[in-house]
Amino acid sequence: MPVITCIEDLKQLYRRRVPRMFYDYAESGSYTEQTFRENSSDFAALRLRQRVAVDMSGRSTASTMIGEPVTMPVALAPVGLTGMQSADGEIKAARAAAEFGVPYTLSTMSICSIEDVAAHSSKPFWFQVYTLKDEDFMSRLFDRARAANCSAIVITVDLQILGQRHKDLKNGLSAPPKLTPASIANMMTKVPWGLEMLGTKRRFFGNIVGHAKGVTDPSSLSSWTAEAFDMTLDWNRIAKFRKMWGGKVILKGILDAEDAKAALSVGADAIIVSNHGGRQQDGALSAIRALPGIVDAVGDKVEVWMDSGIRSGQDVLKALALGAKGTMIGRSYIYGLGAMGQAGVTKALQVIQKELDTSMALCGERKVTDLGRHDLLVPQDFEGRWA
Fold first, then answer.
1. CB 21 within 8 Å of CB 172
2. What is the share, in percent, of the chain residues with pLDDT greater than 90?
3. Is residue 382 part of a domain?
4. What percent of the chain has pLDDT over 70?
5. Is residue 383 one of the residues assigned to a domain?
6. Would you please indicate which residues are annotated as catalytic (active-site) residues?
7. What is the pLDDT of residue 226?
8. Is residue 379 part of a domain?
9. 258 phi, psi to nearest 5 deg
10. pTM recorded for the entire structure
11. What is the CATH number of the domain that holds 135?
12. Number of structural domains, the chain?
């Protein structure tokens, strides 16, 4: 077993183990991928203030997110097709998160269904929904989430229309994968992955096939998906979904201070500063650069979290120091899942927590909840000087 010291180590193992179309699905952005790259690279512009001769004993990374205790303020973000990265991937990730003490968010576009994950996880999880036109399907989806004891829903608000991701189109991305000469040749080099997939019955979108009207197989799913997203979405409809759910609501995909203020008006319990990992609007500001302005606009009225680009515990520290009350990771745990299954998700969380704890100590902080801008050196033009 190789020694895993950082998230990049898991990424290299993941790349070797998972078929190309699913690796590319996770490791790509839209169009030129500028925003995808800058989500991670922009963290490097921030410097940590090292402090010495301070008591570093009794440190704690524990915090809360929407009132739920967490081992560290890092939740697993919703990622579609997780069950194609590793057989029963959503169940494995949910179990790892529950055992570690951080929230797991199940995507509507998951391979394992809400019911499957609930039956195999020891703790309540969050459920992510898209804003779809099918009112009946949405109502029943919320009912299923309640029955599964989900403690919050995460409404993704930045996917009314799908951003073009060139690699997915070229690879013919689908679940299960389409059998073409190229995909067969590639999958033949991924024997352990293939043997695992042969051993599970979960290979379709479990929350949709058999639940959405007229969707009984992968071919009918594709036509349903093409028409499903609600392009007329506005804040009134989001408020309607919040009322339909009746519990805690997190809005994911906020990148502008005015949108953050609007999120307050619909009663969001938390908002996530996110650009969908650079998979939607290419050329948009990175999430870490957008974060300070949004915190300034609404930070004392609602929990502001940050997602997109986090690859280390130091990235988590920087987001928290800029005012985020929590963070989400997507690719970082997917690398671990694809590389080593449930153990890989746990390893990714362990790596991030260790980096967070060590870096926090060297900043002279003992509690993650005490982190603030005083722990950073921030370039004067970090948020950009825009006309």
1. yes
2. 81
3. no
4. 97
5. no
6. 276
7. 67
8. no
9. -65, -40
10. 0.95
11. 3.20.20.70
12. 1
